[in-house]
Predict the 3D structure of the following.
Amino acid sequence: MFYTRQAVRPSFAFLACCVVLALILAACGGGAAPTPASAQPTGAGQPNPTELPAKTEPVILRIGWLGKPDTLNPAYAFLTESYLIFDLILNPLVTEDPTGKYVGALAKEWKAAEDGLTWTFTLKDNIKWHAGTPVTADDVAWAINAVIKDPEGWAALSNYVAGFKEVTAPDDKTVQIALENPIGNMEYRLSFLYTLPRKDFEQFKTPEDLQNFANDQAIGTGPFKLTQFDKDKGILILEANPDYFDGASKIDQIIFQTFDNADALVQALKVGDIDLVTEVPQSAFSTVKGFANVKAVQTPGRYFSEMIINSVPEDHDPPPTRNSALTDPQVRLAMAHAINKNDLVDVVLQGLGKPGVTIVPPILGGGFWYNSDIKDVEFDLTKANQILEDAGYKKGSDGVRAKDNVKLEFRLQFPSDNPLYPRAADLISAWFKEVGIKTTPQSTDPDALTAAITPVGDYDLVLWGWGPDPDPDFILSVMTTEQFVEGGWGDSGYSNPEYDQLYRDQQLAIDKTERQKMIKKMQEMVFNDRPYIVTWYEDILQAYRSDRFKGFIESPLGIESQKSILQAEPVP
Amino acid sequence: MSKLQRSFSNFWKVFRHSRMGLVGAFLLITMLLLALLAPLLTPYEPTDIIRDAAKRPLIYAPPSVHPPLGTDDAGHDVWTLLVYGARISLLVGFVAGFISVFIGSTLGTLAGFYGGKVDTVLMRTTDVFLVVPDLPLTIILIAMIRQLNLGISTIAVLIAVIGLLYWTTTARLIRSQVLTVKERQFVARARAIGAGNGHIMRKHILPLVLPLMTANTVLVISVAILVESGLAFLGLGDPSQPSWGTMLHFAFERNAISVGAWWVYLPPGLAIVWTVLGCVLLGNVLEEIFNPRLKSHHLEGDTKIVAISR
Amino acid sequence: MNRRDYIFRKIVFAILTLAIVFTINFFLFRVLPGDPVRAVIGRNVPISKEARQALYEQFGLNKLVFPDQYFDTLGQYLQGNLGVSWSLRRPVTQVLVAKLGNTLLLVTLGQFFAIILGVTLGLLSGWKRKTKIDISALTFSLIMWAVPTFWLGIMLLALGSALLGLPTGGMIDPKNVNKPFFENLPDVARHLILPTLTFTLVYMGEYMLIMRSSILEVLSEDYILTAKAKGLSHWQIMRKHALKNAMLPIVTLIALNLGFTVSGVIYIETVFSYDGLGKLFQEALTKQDFPLLQGAFMLLALAVIVANMLADILYTYLDPRVKQV
């Protein structure tokens, strides 16, 4: 579930009361509580890289990044960084490959019954835990059942088992999943349900205990084993699993190092202190491109940004606090005409992205879900002025338009933790000024902003972004009425019964083309009603030392994904 | 010739011989002119985006491509940002400086003039403010006020908070000045003929404290400009009204160092040094003229630089 | 007033100041908009009505803000519990302690060089007044005073990394991160060069100015004239009379300076992404993590206030005149 708001890069928006309670008790009680992640494992079972048998020099891939995992416990992990590590040390039944198709991970093959209510999976051979014992169908079934039985505890994954009835293991190699209703995007859902060792995870009595488990000596089935995770130093070390069932990696060790500052990260890549950068800032990308022996990788990504327009219904409880002119479709249309998306891409993203149109980024499912028939509103300030003039908004002496004493004067907020938005807000304000709309850009703490938006509806315009899941289901759910509640993902307050119905229907649709039709229709509705004006799609910007490694697969999954790293090899 | 004119011409006689004072005045005046004449000095607005022939924004264009100072990460003209930034930096510096000096002088005068309990209370308060680390307090206050969403502009918040926190040195300086003035004969005489406190303060104390206050204002302004630039660098400025600190904030955040875009981070820093140096030189010389203390020591002899603390 | 009374008064003043800082901190926190439970647990956590009520009581939020909550919080602070960081989900005290060592290292090194160089330069320039040395030292100090700390850092960073290949930030090269501590000393030293240099340049100017005016003050005293009349050489006068007396104010001023050393630490650590309290403070600001921000502020205030108190007390032993205040 790495659809954390993209803007909140290391976002710890989720902070459970139980965690806080435990910590406070720990602080008062003095050490009686669980030790934090910093406790470093020592002694046996922790091979020190320098003590490896000196037969051949081990191949070490050093990855520099700006974040770090929030936890290695999949029950309660929300950051992209955590999922990147899970991808390398754990395995689900099926997984997304670089082309956007789903392929088997633990599963060799699978099929759904006619009625769509039972799915049967056959496991691959020779699957072993990192500890060396074999993985049985029972183990796989247990891990998924754990999530079904305790959705509160497995908060990060429980969405993926909605509609699951039970998982059984008829024999050692077969896993069967019984569903309450047909599920259209079954493979996608399974790709986050990792097989985890029962003995580590069954001991917890309450959801809080489970979530507080740091799992920083994680055992899995993946191509890499975890050897060290030091949260304070920001280091995470993985070692190749020589017995991996799909063939061992040619890289012996991966060291992840957290950098605090993008300049230092770029510098380290330049001098060769690190081999791979998962995230190059837009403003440094052209510089990185010029480095000797460095390959800069630019791939279209899933991240997009949007301007949220307060669309909370008047009769919502509590009623929205906003400028009432925002509900006028003509005002929305005029604003759409007054945003130069090409300039936003050129200036804010330094040209490294594309103008945005709909809420389903063109890259999802290899372009299958994107509605390319939608023609974007063109940037035209004269036209925007004309629309407002015709709709009865007249310019006052201060240059701000007004109708029936309602001035077109809006708050324009954005989260404070991303350097892209202040620039974007500036540009948008300047264009809006030209058409007689006054906006006050304001940087706001992301958590406070969330609190003001959902479900209170106290805002006018907000710039923010999403990093949608590979399947469009999640990003579509954001616009449903039922998500605009406390703790929900909704933010625009958009409420359209027809849209909500389509959302439910597409979940049940097993036929892919039928589902595609519904999803395209939904994109159209959002585009025309404009709860969001999607401003841009961001490219993923990465880089690696081409004098040290080759063979990475460039895809929306990133060059650091499991599939890509298994392909990579050292340059002799 | 009026009294004022006379004292001014006396002042000028001394001042024009002080090379440091003249340099300081020159630095400050040029910067003030730059700020005032900003619209005449550049054809652009700070929000304008500079474009190439294909109408695409020019990002990080060096001065050779887009004279005189190139463009920044958003395609803004750096020279335009610099001259308009002078307006914001100087505005915050001057207004916050005046507020500080006003508060400091009022407290200092009251403490010095009334003495006793008033003095104790006011000076203890000053001592408290003096030891509390001011930058963290400033940051916390600004961050809090922003959270409250009071609808006050960012610049106004900066001015208010800086003005309200950086008055301690002034209070102490003015107090000691008032203490010496108070003991002079004509004050005692005025009191003897039955003049009220208000009258004595207005007619006898204030005129004697005023010159020193002026000198101190110039110094406090330099502190305010430095503090503002630092806060803006940390991201507490208003990006829609960029000051020099805001320019440096974006240069740092948007990797101007990695890009090697020296034209983005060099000019605003030099502008700050230029202005602050102007204020310090001028302020020190003024203080020296208005507050003649030690003119020489026994191993050598000449004017003295007064150390000031940030 | 004898020395004991004086020391007692200084301690009372320090405690009083801390109490005021705490009070400001406490009420600022209450002024924050929104639900206080949210303020404690973070903004975005789905939470049931029952759990909310339980938390409400747990944190004593159902009690009066003053005096109940005020003294509860005070009690917690006195036990060293500064609350829990929103962004890091760890006790603030624990986070602060983890960063304290690095900051102390930087401050100690920076102050050491700044004091040595600043005091020497100040002495020289006061003594050799109006000479070329004095004028260049003065000019240098004035310019350093006018240079914003963070900008000096940026310039040194740009120059140092481009010309000398010095690291652009952090405390250690990532490739060395798992080596034992002692092997890493040269690397840590390399990373400390630029931040320490920035620190030294910024503060030596101030020490130089202070030392200069202090020595000027001493040299204008009558006993210097007496000494001169006795036929002592300049050097003898400096050594026997001036130096000792001029050093006195410096001792207190160095302690007083700690207050604005804090600002320097925030800027320098931010620019060089140096893993200490200053950067922590800047990050807490960026993430609007108020418990962390306030905890860090309390710690910094505590350090400065205690240092000031100690300096005041030390002064009574150093300067015989203060004995009878």
About this structure: The CA atoms of residues 108 and 175 of chain B lie 4 Å apart. Residues 300-310 of chain B have pLDDT under 50 and may be disordered. The two ends of chain B are 40 Å apart (CA to CA). Chain B has 13 helices and no strands.
